[in-house]
Write a structure and sequence with these properties.
By secondary structure, the protein is of the alpha+beta class. The protein has helices at residues 6-12, 53-71, 110-130, 133-138, 140-156, 159-167, 172-197, 203-211, 217-237, 239-245, 248-251, 267-270, 277-282, 295-299, 319-331, 343-353, 388-410, and strands at 88-91, 96-99, 102-104, 262-265, 338-341, 414-420, 427-428, 434-444, 450-457, 463-465, 474-475, 477-482, 486-496, 508-514, 519-525. It has 17 helices and 15 strands. The strands form four sheets. Strands 6, 7, 8, 10, 11 and 13 form a six-stranded antiparallel sheet that branches. A hairpin with an 8-residue loop joins strand 10 and strand 11.
Length: 533
């Protein structure tokens, strides 16, 4: 089936035309017999274990992603005595986000937003280049379903054994296997939820408190929710999550073009399919490379037949490629009957096989007399990945990443915030001087104690007092010790003599600086007096 019929196939399948609330309905559609339900009853899928280069790559991705998820909270990173030593930590209590040597404060959350933008452009880039590779290899739903399938195969056996067990009566053996499988799934689900909470607190301490029943209630509730979702989504719903719950299959169409690589059944060389090649040859009938063995269907975790064309349910995991290549190897035929291909490539080869669409598919047209493919037959060329669309996504991804790096390197670790008192805006003292009050916040964003100098600039006759340091002492410069990785809040009063009130409209500036690191921040503020507008 041609790739460009995908949209009509999806609509006709009923997946994209769900009834209200996802319920069955007896109201017939345009091509639906009266009284027939809109949805077909779910058929259980028993994927067979595949062998090949794509399956090995999926094993590698699964090991890497699961390893990162489960191990990362336990990695230590020395930040000194005044900061946590967990490499990756989302410290909600202190409103900090630690990632190895990087510390993100709340006002720097744009770094996290930038990473999300990079993730978006990265997803667009991957999809436009190689289709739903994210879904097929790295999506958490795919990774955990793969993990659950490993458990299922280990306990219940491969495809035929699981189908036989499912169809058979309930015996002690069946009960024991099902109990063992679901119990193992629950253990994995609990570990999944448990690993997540360790990102929000010191992992060893939280693990000890959790096992002793002393952890916060939110920790237990989070683990319970994530355990339930992992078990249900990864073990019970599986492909239903990808087909009915995930929005990405419906969005990806906007990311694909005629040069995007997608898993494709090359019917221009596979049709007419059949299992009796010798009989067909004796009868002088054309026969394609597909022997209709259904190996591609048996290994598909979504339960689809890739030979029916591109479908919404296909996650391009490429296991059907491994299965088909294995069959082609046994038959001594060229690999690639099912392969990553572009729509342009497919159309070109189909035009050769059908004489420009004037006849049915004839495999002889794409081969020479010695059985090799004709020179006109197009094959994969890596240069198709380098095209304006992918270059744009790559440039956007790099630009955002470069901007984040520059901002990270140039950011200050010392910040000054000033808030003028609103009530009262000023105080008239007995000698005619005017006093203004300010709340000053000194942000020391490094895990070390520092001595900072807070000084006034402007209003040369003005003096400031900091009651927390010295109740009766007034000056224009104060040395302030600030705690590491903390915000120090001080009340500051600035007094301007009566004879200098005319200078008030010039305003003033607070300056905080660290003479050792040469860091400095300036905040300009107003000085209010009676009658000022």
């Amino acid at each position: 089936m041609p790739l460009d019929t995908a949209a009509s196939d999806i609509t006709a399948s009923g997946v994209a035309t769900a009834g209200e609330g996802g319920r069955k309905t007896d109201a017939p559609g345009p091509d639906q017999p009266a009284g027939q339900p809109l949805y077909q009853k779910r058929k259980k899928i028993f994927p067979k274990r595949a062998e090949g280069r794509f399956r090995r790559f999926k094993w590698l991705v699964m090991l890497v992603t699961l390893g990162i998820y489960y191990i990362t909270p336990w990695i230590r990173w020395d930040r000194g005595p005044y900061a946590p030593d967990q490499a990756v930590l989302i410290d909600l209590a202190s409103r900090r986000f630690y990632v190895f040597f990087i510390e993100i404060w709340p006002q720097e959350f744009f770094f996290v937003a930038g990473l999300l933008v990079m993730a978006g452009f990265g997803l667009f880039l991957v999809t436009s280049a190689v289709g739903r590779a994210w879904c097929g290899y790295s999506c958490p739903q795919t990774v955990w379903v793969d993990l659950f399938l490993v458990v299922e195969r280990f306990i219940e056996g491969d495809r035929n054994a699981r189908m036989k067990l499912d169809a058979g009566p309930w015996t002690f053996e069946k009960l024991a296997k099902r109990t063992g499988k679901h119990a193992t799934w629950l253990v994995i689900a609990v570990l999944t939820g448990g690993a997540w909470i360790f990102y929000f607190a010191d992992a060893p301490s939280l693990a000890f408190d959790f096992l002793n029943g002393q952890a916060p209630f939110v920790a237990y509730s989070t683990v319970a929710v994530l355990t339930a979702t992992t078990y249900v989504f990864g073990g019970l719903l599986r492909e239903q999550v990808c087909i009915y719950m995930c929005p990405w299959p419906r969005i990806q169409g906007a990311m694909l073009d005629d040069s995007s690589l997608v898993v494709t059944y090359n019917d221009w060389r596979g049709e007419p399919r059949g299992r009796h090649a010798k009989k067909a040859a004796a009868a002088n009938q054309p026969m394609g490379d597909c022997v209709d063995c259904d190996a591609c269907v048996a290994v598909c975790p979504m339960g689809i037949d890739i030979r029916d064309g591109q479908q919404l349910a296909c996650i391009t995991c490429a296991l059907c490629i491994d299965a088909c290549d294995g069959v082609m190897d046994k038959l001594g035929r060229a690999r690639g009957l099912i392969a990553y291909a572009t729509l342009d490539e497919y159309r070109s080869n189909m035009a050769i096989a059908t004489d420009g669409g004037r006849t049915a598919i004839d495999p002889a047209r794409v081969r020479t007399a010695d059985g090799r493919f004709a020179e006109a037959v197009r094959s994969f060329d890596w240069r198709i990945i380098v095209r304006p669309r992918t270059l744009f996504y790559t440039a956007a991804w790099c630009a955002v990443g470069l901007g984040l790096v520059v901002a990270l390197l140039a950011r200050d670790r010392l910040e000054l915030n000033v808030l003028h008192d609103r009530n009262p805006q000023f105080v008239l003292e007995s000698d005619g001087a005017i006093r203004n009050g300010y709340t000053i916040r000194l942000l020391n964003m490094i895990p070390e104690r520092r001595i900072l100098l807070l000084s006034l600039q402007g209003l040369n006759s003005a003096e400031m007092k900091i009651p927390a340091l010295a109740a009766d002492y007034a000056d224009r410069v104060f040395a302030i010790q600030v705690e590491p990785d903390r915000v120090t809040t001080l009340k500051v009063f600035v007094t301007l003599p009566k004879e200098a009130l005319a200078d008030a409209r010039e305003g003033l500036a607070f300056i905080v600086e660290d003479r050792i690191s040469q860091e400095k921040d300036v905040y300009r503020a107003a000085f209010n007096i009676p009658g000022a507008q």
